[in-house]
Amino acid sequence: MPALRTSARSARDAVRDRLRAWEVPGDTCCDAVLLVSELTTNAVLHTDSGHVLCGLTLTGDERRLRIELHDADRTPVRPPEHRAGPGEESGRGLLLVQQLADRWGSARSTRAEGKVVWAELTSYPSYL
User: Fold this and answer.
1) Which residues contact 32 (CB under 8 A, 6 or more apart)?
2) Which CATH number do you get for residue 33?
């Protein structure tokens, strides 16, 4: 998708639809949608990428959901060094990712020229 602010909404909608089709439970779905929104927004605001690529993978046992956001920037993403103050409008996205995800990180992308920022959530199928 194009690296525009409006892409975060498109990514949220697409991810929500896919996770509902996969029957991912509501809490996990909500967390995943928020993670996608934060990762997309970070890529759009903090890289010079023209496009971003969002990917979802549900592992074979359907208990782990992996979210990936690929962009053209090669700068690795690191955990936030400080918390945003009450008057600051930004600076909380990666803190949310760190709090919501069971695991997260960044690496060189195999699907784009730059990096991938990924997050994993433990998911439990709705039939359990």
Assistant:
1) 15, 19, 24, 56, 65, 67, 121
2) 3.30.565.10
